[in-house]
Amino acid sequence: MKLVYTVASAFLVVLIAQSAYASEKLSAQDYAYNSTCLNHLRSHIKRELQAAVTYLAMGAWANHYSVQRPGLANFFFDSASEEREHGLKLLGYLRMRGHNDLDILPSSLEPLNGKYEWENSLSALRQALKMEKDVTESIKKIIDYCADAEDHQLADYLTGDFMEEQLKGQRNVAGLANTLQGVLRKQPRLGEWIFDNNLSKSMAV
Ligand SMILES: [Fe+2]
C-alpha cells in the first residue's frame, strides 16, 4: 500500500510540474524597456506601411495607360517594397525587444491624403520627397525621445542602421525631382518623357 501512495504522489508531482511548465511564459522584455518609447516605434511602423501604400498608389497611377510613365512606375513600386521592408524590420525589432502585443498592425491603411492621382511626374515626386522628409523627422523624434528615456540601444539602432537607409532614400527622391526639374526647364514639352525613358534604362541596369 505504501508503494502505491509513493507512486501516486510521484505521478502527482510530475503532473503539477508539467502544468506549471505549460502555463509559464518567460518574459523577453529587457532592462531598458520603456513602453512610451516602444509605442512611438510602434506608431512609426504605421508611417512606414502608409509610405508603402502611398508608393503603391503612385506606381499604379504612373503605370496607367493614360499616364504611361513606366520608369517612374517601377521606381515607385520598388520604393513601396522598400518601405514595407522597413515596417517589417521594425516589427522584427519590437519582437526582439520583447514587445508582446500581437495587435501590432494598423487596422486600416490608405495612401497619404487619400490621394490616387497626381498632376504630373514632378508633383508625384514632390509629394514623395515630402513624405520621406516626414518619415525622417519621425525617426529623429523617436531617437531623441528614446535617448532621453535612456533606451540607448534603440536610439543607436535607429541612428545607425535605420537612419542611414532613410537618408539615402530621401536623397534619391530629391535627386530624381531635381533632375526632372532640370530636364523640364530645357525641354518643357518632351522633358517628362525623356526623364522617364532615362529612368527606365537606369533601372534596367
Ligand atoms: Fe522607410
Automatic annotation (TrEMBL):
Listed binding positions for Fe cation are 48, 83, 86, 132, 166
A single GO BP term for this record reads: iron ion transport
Q: Which SUPFAM superfamilies does the entry mention?
A: Ferritin-like
- Looking at the record, the residues that make up the Ferritin-like diiron domain are 31-184
- Leader sequence range is 1-22
The UniProt keywords, alphabetically, are: Disulfide bond, Golgi apparatus, Iron, Iron storage, Metal-binding, Oxidoreductase, Secreted, Signal
Any one GO MF term held by the record is: ferroxidase activity
Gene3D superfamilies in the cross-refs: 1.20.1260.10
Taken from the UniProt entry, a GO cellular component term is:
extracellular region
EC numbers for this chain: 1.16.3.1
Family annotation (InterPro entries): Ferritin, Ferritin-like, Ferritin-like_diiron, Ferritin-like_SF, Ferritin_DPS_dom
Task: Please write the reaction equations for the catalytic activity of this protein.
Answer: 4 Fe(2+) + O2 + 4 H(+) = 4 Fe(3+) + 2 H2O
Q: What class of enzyme is it?
A: oxidoreductase
Annotated family: Belongs to the ferritin family.
Q: Which PANTHER family match?
A: FERRITIN (PTHR11431:SF43)
Job of this protein: Stores iron in a soluble, non-toxic, readily available form. Important for iron homeostasis. Iron is taken up in the ferrous form and deposited as ferric hydroxides after oxidation.
The molecule here is called Ferritin
**Originating organism:** Daphnia pulex (Water flea)
Q: What gene makes this protein?
A: FER1
